[in-house]
Amino acid sequence: MTILVTGATGNAGRQVVNELIALGQRVRAVTRDADRARFPAGVEVVQGDLTRPETIPFDGVTGVHLLTNAGANYAELLTGPDLVKRAEKAGVRRITVLWSGYRSPLEEAVTASSLEWTVLRPVDFMSNSLVWAEPVRREGVVREPFAYARSALVHEGDIGAVAAAVLARGGHGGRTYTLTGPESLSVPEQVAVIGAAIGREIRYVEQSEDEARREMLGAGRPAEVVDFLIEWKRDMPAEGYTVVGSVEDVLGRPARSFALWAREHAGAFR
Predict the structure, then answer these.
(1) Is residue 222 domain-resident?
(2) What is the mean pLDDT of the chain?
(3) pLDDT of 178 higher than 90
(4) Mean pLDDT for the stretch of residues 142-156
(5) Residue 75: pLDDT over 80
(6) What range(s) does the NmrA-like domain occupy (predicted)?
(7) CA atoms of 195 and 202, how far apart (whole Å)
(8) Considering only CA atoms, which of 158, 131, 125, 163 is closest in space to residue 240?
(9) CA dihedral defined by 126, 187, 123, 1, rounded to 10 degrees?
(10) Domain span holding position 50
(11) Contacts by 44-50 with C-beta closer than 8 Å and gap 24+?
(12) Of 220, 203, 232, nearest in space to 124 by CA
């Protein structure tokens, strides 16, 4: 069967594509810029935009992986009901929804539909730590607020593997899975793990909330996105730092550790 993956060039979407290929599935990868996308041979690459549902080719597809945001900077996707109607009309049977931190029109439409749906709620992606790569290479330092905050951050490869298993094998309809790694780590602990992976000490400098806000705004992030990220880090909900076994329940193996992720990406920090 053919499975359609939206957001296919993103940190999680690319992993979903790779994991589906490993399971022997045919993949239709949807991206906003098909000419620049690079995927393994055999992947059908098409250009589409979730904000324009008519551009998403659901024809001939039995499973779909969808996002709840409209692209960069966590913008809310408002076209969810139309996307779901089109998927149902095309004969899609199974769908996964990648949560973005809030209840969305897409999630509401999917969970009220006739589709075999599964909502995936990953906490912080381990790949978000790549934002530290440049200052680590240049100065050997990481500057972040809220040293006390802990996260059960999840390997993006595990997100992809869970989505692929659900879409290819079924059996998870009507369920919502929080996806975490195997441990809860503070930012200083994450920094120490990366330091061990690259063989040198990295300094952690705790920013004030105002410093962090100015830095994110200066990097071009919209104010509402900055507010969301600051609030998430300042007062993280329990599901953000509580380790659960959903990855192992679905895949039959433990979730991958941050130490493993750091070794895989050590080159980015050197």
Answers:
(1) no
(2) 93
(3) yes
(4) 95
(5) no
(6) 2-102
(7) 6
(8) 125
(9) 0
(10) 2-122+155-180+242-256
(11) 44/2, 45/8, 48/6, 50/6, 50/7, 50/77, 50/79, 50/83
(12) 232
Q: 127: which 2 tokens? A: 């790949």
Answer whether residue 75 is part of any domain. yes
Residue 17 covered by a domain: yes
Q: Among 27, 22, 23, 20, which Cα is nearest to 2's?
A: 27
Looking at residue 233, what is its pLDDT?
A: 86
pLDDT single digits (tens) 218-250? 988 888 888 888 988 888 889 999 999 999 999
Q: Given this model, what pLDDT does residue 172 score?
A: 97
Q: What is the CA radius of gyration of the chain?
A: 19
- Average pLDDT of the residues in 152-178: 97
**How many domains does one find in the chain?**
1
CATH number at residue 37: 3.40.50.720
159 in Cβ contact with 12 (< 8 Å): yes
Residue 74 pLDDT = 67
Residue 223 lies in a domain: no
- SS3 percent helix, strand, coil of the chain, rounded to 5, is 45, 20, 35
- CA dist., res. 13 & res. 157, Å (int): 10
Q: Are 66 and 84 in contact (CB under 8 A)?
A: no
The predicted model scores a pTM of 0.94
| Locus of tokens 């790694």 | 181
